[in-house]
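Methods: holo model generation. Sequences were used as deposited, without trimming of termini or removal of tags, and paired with ligand SMILES retrieved from the corresponding compound records. Each pair was processed once, and we did not select among multiple samples. The sequence and pyridoxal-5'-phosphate SMILES for this entry were:
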Amino acid sequence: MVESAAHSIHSLLADAARRAATYLDGLGEREVSATPRTIDRLANMLDTPLPDHGVGASEVLALLDDFASPATMASAGGRYFGFVTGGALPATVAAGILAKAWDQNSFGFISSPAVAQIEMTALRWVTQVLGLPPTSEGTFVAGATMANFTCLAGARNQVLRQAGWDIDAHGLFGAPEISVIVGEEVHASLGKVLSMLGLGRNRVVRVPVDAQGQMRADKLPKISGPAIVCIQAGNVNSGGFDPAPEIIAHAHDAGAWVHVDGAFGLWAMATPRLAPLARGFELADSWATDAHKWLNVPYDCGVAIVRDPAALHHAMAISGAYLPDGQDRDALQFSPDSSRRARAVDVWAALKSLGRSGLAELIEGNCRQARAMADGLAQGGVEILNDVVLNQVVAAFGDAAQTGRVIEKVQRRGVCWCGPTTWQGRKAMRISVSSWATTDEDIEKSLASILAAFAA
Ligand SMILES: *Cc1c(COP(=O)(O)O)cnc(C)c1O
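and the model returned the structure below.
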């Protein structure tokens, strides 16, 4: 049944907003994990055949809120430290609701002049705040995985073109080989991306790393021919940074393309206090980052930025190989997808609501909180395995089995959520402090809960 009256859309959306606000208000009181009971309850509600006849939109909403809301992970709250997970700033949630109502197809100027303009500003601001070259081009994609894909497609095509191979016309069949150089601690998603690009997961050269998982510049191989070097700003466990200036100088001397996976670490550039960690990364040729991690916009949103606009355009153009001159900018000429949602709206809303100072406070605050968490755990006899330079803490509670038991207990206690990881061969708990919603009180409560689980 379609409710078409203006009255009903008002009450429907007011109901949605009220339910969303009530959900967010309740996050502080509930368990952070979805419990087996709430998951089963949702599964039972969902276990029905496709209905012959629909129900009203308000009933659809009520079902979702009554059954699915309690079964969600409270990752929008302040005590979810799993993976690297940002919350969603209030301005971005609100802007997202409006943008959903707009329902703009954001592939180009012709389909949405409004979003096309917002996208140009959002890209310019992201580039500025990350200290990247202002003449770069970029695009908003689903996440850092797709941002890595987008950048590395540009890299692959460019290094082959420079070797005299027209990949647009001939693909990879018979092409000169490309050397792909990564660190031993490369993020798993990069292997998937290399496989999607026909470059192979396993035929990479892996450079040894130090105790923080940072590539050792003195162990770089000699580079010749078409080559791509992938470096990291922010190791997913330790938060460590590869030594960009040395690696980039070495790679550029050999004519290689340098790509940065900076999913969260690149945001260190947003504060003068932490920017020295990311020193030299701006000298690379392309950068992948996430907005749904540390910028705290809702899922999903990654950003791909490429120094040479023509290189990105060559790889992504839908209409042939040349940069349109003096025309309106169409996102689909720089992006792997065509039709897409207006991700830029969330990014613009985040940066407009925070400003430079708000963003710097968010980033620095999370780093200070991670430090407090690490110090508190260490005082409680927990072994901290990384040098806590950013927002990531890697902790061990004895051997693998003991650590596994503590992680399980912490998740079951429900005060906070931390996940398992393997750090340089050792089972560990990873604590990532990446949310605007995390207060110092959240850190204290979580610390107490982890120490209680450790003591039990
Ligand atoms: C999270 C992460 C990725 C993958 O990002 P998605 O947004 O999940 O696609 C890649 N690299 C690093 C370093 C990450 O932290």
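Residues 1 and 56 are 6 Å apart (CA to CA).
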